[in-house]
Each structure stands twice: as structure tokens, then as C-alpha cells.
Amino acid sequence: MSVFNRLLIILLDLLLLVAAGAVLLTTLGVTQPEQLAPTPWFVDRLVPFTQLDPTSWSWAVGVSIVLLLVGLLLLFLELRPGPREALRITLKQDGLGRVTVARDGVRELVDREAGRVAGVMEVRSHVEQDHAGLRILCRLSVDPTRSVPDMTQELQERLKGVVEHHLGRPVAEVRVDAQVAPLASDRRAGRRVR
Amino acid sequence: MDSGGLQLSEVSIARAIVAAVRSVPGVADVSPGRFAEAATYGPGEKVRGVVVGRAVDVLDIEVHLCALYADSLVLPELAAQVRSAVRQSVEALGVGLLRRIDVAFDDLRVEEA
Fold first, then answer.
1. Looking at the complex, does the CB of residue B46 fall below 8 Å from at least one CB of chain A?
2. What are the b/e assignments for A118-133, b being 16+ CB within 10 Å?
3. pTM greater than the 0.90 cutoff
4. Residue B76 is nearest to which of A87, A102, A168, comparing CB atoms?
5. Does any CB of chain B come closer than 8 Å to the CB of residue A100?
6. Measured between CA atoms, how close is B89 to chain A, in angstroms?
7. What does R_g of chain B's alpha carbons equal in angstroms?
8. How far apart are CA A67 and CA A50, in angstroms?
9. Distance from CA of B84 to the nearest CA of A (A)
10. Fewer CB within 10 Å, N- or C-terminus of chain A?
């Protein structure tokens, strides 16, 4: 989600929390509308909540509480930091400590090797690690005159062999996503290899 | 002199370890750290690339380095050589027992042909 959209949602959420909170406090009689509302326009919107019949009073309190909870949950979801993947890949862990390699270093290795395959014009890779081993996802821009299946197979075999050799860790999967068009630009541009 | 061994500063130990690590074939250089600075600090100085932690008479070492990319490069084997060099260096100094040696490869450097 873009930054602008997130800011808009957070702003609207805060307005929701303020409004629901004002209605709840007014309905419960904790405060008077004049104490909460900065202008007569807002006071006029809150005054009816001081004159509710019992049924409407219950509905107003219930709905206000629900809206407050929803607003708080939404605020929490929007403000919490996103999941961050580990910056390092563990190659070995024993009684003497750990041996790790920077994830970006492995990605650069993969990009370099992928660029050596004939027909690969641009590459952007992503490396993950789980209990089964390393998983490599390669997005490629390829030469349309080349055979994509042959290129893909060569790439998978090459990457698996190279990464397992250099890192000493099993490669569980090499996933290749090839296209003819140049890779769309994002914050991290693809590596142009030709 | 302490009965447990010579009390060298962490910075002196780090300096010796850096020299030992740089002499290992396949190591391009120590690395200052990729995500946060990796260094041992002393009064008015710091040694980048090695973090020396000392608890009583045991040492915890963290080495950050750039490996020289080659077809024959195998990182776990290089890490074992680095650990061996660190161990020899620390034993030569006589500064205490090694409890932990973490090796972090921050970069793979390709030599220009």
C-alpha cells in the first residue's frame, strides 16, 4: 500500500476514534457536549445523544464501543512494523558459534550467475531460507529469440549447483519467472546483465 | 600480571586477530559490518571488523569479513580456516580461553580481471 493511502487510512481512523469516543462519553453522561466540541456545529451533533430513550441509549453505547474497538484495531494494524526477513543466512551453527552470510551477498551471487546464462537480459532474485534449505526466486527479462524452457532449465541447474557449492547448504527450490518485457522498476532495480 | 593470563586490552586482541584473518587465503579483507558497525572500541581508537567480548577469562569473538570470490570458494571451509587463524592468534597472545568465534561473511568480492 502506498504511503499516501496509509496516511489517509490512519487519518480517517483517528477521526473515527475521536467521533466514537465523543459520542460514547456524551451518551454515558461522563462529559457534556460543550466540553468536547470546539464549535457550536459539533455541539449540535452531540446534544441528541444526551436525550436518548433507553433503547436508543443502549444502541448508541454498543455501536460506539464497537467502533472504538474497530478503530483501535485498525490503528494497530496500520502502525505496526511489517514482518522483516532475516538479514543473514546461517550456513553453520556448532559449539563454537555461527557462520553466516549476508542475504544480499547471496542474492548478488545469484544475480551474477544468472546473468551468465545466455539469453538472460535482466535479473532480479530473492533468497529465502527454511528448514528444507535455500529457496531462490528469480525474475528474468529474457531474449525472445531464445528458448525459454531450455534457458530456465539451465538456469535452475546452474544456480542450484553454484549456490550449494559456495554456501555448502542445500538448495530446496529454484523458481524462475521469465518475461520478455523489461522488469518493472521498483525501489530495487533489477540487475541489467546485458 | 593476572594469574589467568596476560591482560591485553580488547583492542590489542582485535588488532592481532585482524592481522591473522587477513593472512588467510581467500579473505579479501575484514568488513566494517554490513548492517551495523562491527568494531572493538578502546580509548580513542577502534578496530573495525572484529568484535571482542570478554567475560572473566573467556573470549567471544565475532569476525566480519569480505571473501574473495573464486570458483573454488566454499564459505564453510573458509570459515573453518578463519576460525583456526583466530584460535592460533589468541593462543599465541595467551589472553584466555576462546568460548565463541562467530564468522560473518558480509560480502563476496569479485576481483577485476
1. no
2. ebbbbbbbebebeeeb
3. no
4. A168
5. yes
6. 16
7. 14
8. 19
9. 11
10. N
- Among all chains, which residue has been given the C-alpha cell 522498476? A185
- The ipTM, to two decimals, is 0.89
- How far is residue A108's CA from residue A114's CA, in Å, rounded to a whole number? 10
Q: Is B44 helix (H, G, I), strand (E, B) or coil?
A: coil
Tally of CA atoms within 13 A in the half-sphere of A124 that contains its CB = 14
Asked if A120 and A156 count as a contact pair (C-beta separation under 8 A), the reply is no
CB contact under 8 A, A87 and B106: no
Burial A183-194 (b: 16+ CB within 10 A, else e): beeeeeebbebe
Nearest CB among A97, A102, A165 relative to B107 is that of: A102
Name the DSSP class of A115.
H
Within an 8 Å CB–CB cutoff, is residue A112 touching chain B?
A: yes
A179: amino acid identity, one letter: Q
State whether A109 and B69 contact (CB < 8 Å).
yes
Q: How far apart are CA A111 and CA B57, in angstroms?
A: 45
Q: Show pLDDT as tens, one digit a residue, over chain B (113 residues).
A: 344 445 789 999 999 999 999 999 999 999 998 878 899 999 999 999 999 998 877 899 999 999 999 889 999 999 999 999 999 999 999 887 899 999 999 998 876 54
A-chain CB neighbours of B112 within 8 Å are none
Confirm or reject contact between A84 and chain B (CB < 8 A): no
Q: E-assigned strands of B1-113?
A: 27-30, 39-42, 45-48, 50-55, 58-68, 97-109
- Residue count of chain A: 194
Q: Output the nine-digit C-alpha cell for B86.
A: 583466530
Q: Which three cell numbers stand for residue A147?
A: 528458448
CB contact under 8 A, A105 and B107: yes
- The closest of B36, B109, B83 to A88, measured between CA atoms, is B36
